[in-house]
Amino acid sequence: MRIVDFRSDTITKPTKEMREAMFNAEVGDDVYGEDPTINQLEEIAARLVGKEAALFVPSGTMGNQLAVLCHTQRGDEVILEERSHIYNYEVAGIAFLSGVQARIVKGNNGIMNSKDVEKAIIADGDIHHSQTGLICLENTHNMAGGIVIPPESMKEVYDIAKKYNLPVHLDGARVFNASASLGCDVKEITKHCDSVMFCLSKGLCAPVGSILAGSKEFINKARRYRKMLGGGMRQAGVLAAAGIVALTSMVTRLSEDHKNARLLAEGLKDVRGIQVNMNTVQSNILMVDLTTPEYDSVSLVSRLKDEGILASDINSSRIRFVTHKYISEDDIEYTVDVVRRILG
Q1: Following DSSP, what letter does each residue of 204-245 receive, concatenated?
Q2: In DSSP terms, which residues pair with 135 in a beta bridge?
Q3: What confidence score (pLDDT) does residue 244 get?
Q4: Number of helical (H) and strand (E) elements in the chain, helices listed first
Q5: Nearest of 315, 279, 313, 275 to residue 6 by alpha carbon
Q6: For strand 210-214 and strand 53-57, is the pairing parallel, antiparallel, or unpaired?
Q7: DSSP assignment of 87-122, as one string?
Q8: Closest Cα to residue 195, out of 51, 38, 39?
Q9: What span, in angstroms and rounded, lies between the C-alpha atoms of 293 and 272?
Q10: Is the CB of residue 12 less than 8 Å from the CB of residue 324?
Q11: Beta strands in the chain (DSSP E)
C-alpha cells in the first residue's frame, strides 16, 4: 500500500549523504570533549545562529529543559505562550527538573503581545510571590500551525526582558523553517534571544539530535546539566556527522516543504466539511478544521489511514499535516483526491 506520512517531520530518515558521513565519522569521547566531529558540529551550529557556543543534545526536549535549568532558580516563574511545546508537551519537565512554575500568556496564533508579556512579569521582590526568571518563545510555533513569529515581535519581547534583566530562551525546533519563510538569515531571528534550541532531526532529516546555543558561560553550565540528565553520549560523532550534513546541505531545501504545505492547503480549503485558515499556512505545518458532522478528527484520521495517509488528530475537530523531504507534489495530489472522495 502507498504510504504518505504527514504525522510529523520527525519521521524523516537520514539521507544517503548522511549515512556515508556517519560511516566515515572520526569519533572520540565527547564527555571528555574529545569527539572531533561533535566539536565541529557545535562550532558550525554556534556560528550559524550567532552565539558564542553550542552543545549537541539527544533531543529538543532535553535542550529546552537544559535552558530552563541554566536560566532559572528553583521557585521562579517562567513565562510561556499557552500552547507552547515546553508547557504542553515536555511532561511538566520545568516543574519536575527545575522546580519552576509556568505563567501562561494567551497568544494570537501563538504570538504573545509584548504588553501582555510585561503584565505577566513579576519583579516586585515580595517574599510571597514567585519572581519571573525566564521568558520562552517558540518559532515556528507548532500548535499554532507552523506560524512564524516576526523578528520585530521577538525584539519587542526581548527589549522588555532586558528592561527587567530577564533572559529569553527560544524554542527554535524549526527555526530554520522560520528563516526560510521570512527569507532572512537565521541570525536575524536568534539575535532576539539569549539561548536557542533547534532540532536536527525534523525537517533537516538527521536521525538524532538537537543543538542548544548561547554564551560560553551558559553552555558550560548546560554541559554539566546534560551529564546530570544522562545526555553525555561518548562516541556520538556518528550522530553529529549527520547533523553537519543537515546544517550544510538540508537548510536550503526547506522552502520546498513550505510550498507543498501551501499546495495541500489550497487543495483542501474548498473541500466540503473542511476549513483552512490560509493566513496561518506559513511553513511546513497545516492545521485543518472539520465542520462536518459525519466525521470527527479521530474517525477521519482513521479513515485516511485506510488509504495509506497518516496524519495527527490534535483535538476532536482539528487535524495536523506536516510536510517534509519525503512528501512529494504527487503525494499532495493523491491526498487531496482521497479527502475529496471521502468527504464528497
Answers
A1: T--SS-EEEEE-HHHHHHHHHHHHHTT---SSTHHHHHHHHH
A2: 79, 168
A3: 98
A4: 14, 13
A5: 313
A6: antiparallel
A7: HHSSTTHHHHHH--EEEEE--BTTBPPHHHHHHH--
A8: 51
A9: 11
A10: yes
A11: 4-5, 53-57, 77-81, 101-105, 132-138, 168-171, 195-199, 210-214, 274-275, 285-290, 309-310, 312-315, 318-322
Alpha carbons 27 and 35: distance in angstroms, whole number: 5
Cα separation, 171 vs 181, in Å, equals 17
Nearest to 205 by CA among 164, 166, 168, 254: 254
The Cα 94–Cα 87 span in angstroms is: 8
> How far is it, in rounded angstroms, from Cα 88 to Cα 85?
5
**Between β-strands 101-105 and 77-81, what pairing exists: parallel, antiparallel or unpaired?**
parallel
For the segment 190-225, what is each residue's pLDDT rounded down to a tens digit? Answer: 999 999 999 999 999 999 999 999 999 999 999 999
Whose cell is 499532495? That residue is: 332
136 contacts 171 by C-beta, under 8 angstroms? yes
Instruction: Find, among 302, 272, 298, 274, the residue nearest to 288 by Cα.
Output: 274
Q: Which of 4, 1, 7 is nearest to 322 (CA)?
A: 7
In the numeric block, the cell 516586585 is attached to 124
Cis amide leading into 292 (omega within 30): no
Give this prediction's pTM: 0.97
Encode pLDDT of 312-321 as tens digits: 999 999 999 9
Spatial separation of the C-alpha atoms in residues 68 and 99, rounded to whole Å: 10
Q: Single out the residue of 226, 198, 71 nearest to residue 135, CA to CA.
A: 71
Q: Which three cell numbers stand for residue 228?
A: 546530570
Task: Decide if 243 contacts 199 (C-beta within 8 A).
Answer: no
